[in-house]
Amino acid sequence: MANQTLPYEGIRVVEFTHMVMGPTCGMVLADLGAEVIKIEPIEGDRTRDLLGSGAGFFSMFNRNKKSIAVDLKTQEGKELVEKLIASADIISENFRSGMMAQFGFDYSTLSKKYPKIIYVSHKGFLPGPYDHRTALDEVVQMMGGLAYMTGPEGRPLRAGSSVNDIMGGIFGAVGAMAALKQREQTGIGQEVQSSLFENNILLVGQHMMQYASTGKAASPMPSRISAWGIYDVFKVKNDEQIFLAVVSDSQWEIFCKAFGLNDLKQDERFSTNNLRVQHRSVMMPILQTLLADKTANEIATIFEDNGLPYAPITKPHELLDDPHLNATGGLGEVVMSSGPNAGNTTKTPLLPITLGGNRLPIRLNPPKLGEHTKELLEEIGYSDSQIDDLLKKKIIQ
Fold first, then answer.
1. What is the pLDDT of residues 209-241, one digit of tens each?
2. CA-CA distance, 304 to 339, in Å (whole number)?
């Protein structure tokens, strides 16, 4: 997209965010061309140093951003940040309730001074009876039905990704885009709210509507009655696993022909999808036995050649070498700015969209702490001597 203007070029976002939800919102807007300025405390966003499952948070969700490190507990720090806010189109935050008000950067205060400002708050719950609770992705997955649907009966299990944090941030960005469009018409900004819990409810909405439609509660996914005769993970040769799906009667005919299963094709119990669902307890052991002597790759080749749905069981790190992602530009390169591998170049997933046939590029690596402090302060009128003085006082870094 070297010669193509990104849609949100010229839009400035000042974000007060940490962890996943808020940074995701900024990442989406930044990938789409906005200038996103990350306000960090002097000690840095704490996700810079997380270990375990959080080790990739900062590098994943903070690309294409600028970092300014400032002590907001000082008057000088608040003053310089407010100058940045005065130049911004969007403010984004995901801190606990009341924290932004302590600095005078809550929507009520800022909107009086800057009526065009769009203010995105990422919270656990939208305003209501639950909004006093402390929420985490896992909390809302448990109380919002997602963990129940993911795990086996009696064993609620969180999804294997920060789905609500990530999608909550995406919806925060969508809300900001909608507010920008309205501002074109009205000249006035507004507050946008996005939340973990309500996002989770959207994710399980299909199961809520299943109950509304049938009067029967949805069973957890591992014990559900599938709508399809073949829609499962098969254990095959060498203890490999592969997911296979045959979801229509025409696919059943193709499947039987491809694997030479004429007897099954002629069996009246399996002649339609609904009959195959009813007789899964008979059909599945037969298929497991018939496929057990083939490797996952052999089965995948047959399914591929016949246009049947299948999937290898892939671990996340293996996707760094995925041939499709690498061939289509689905992975961009970034220099890690934190963690044990800081300074190393790695691949990272890009937004799953194209504009004009192009993927959205990585223009800036995840920033080092305070990497753009001097540049941004010079832009809003601070002299070298003023910046040096703030550095000596440890108000900025």
1. 999 999 999 999 888 777 899 999 999 999 999
2. 40
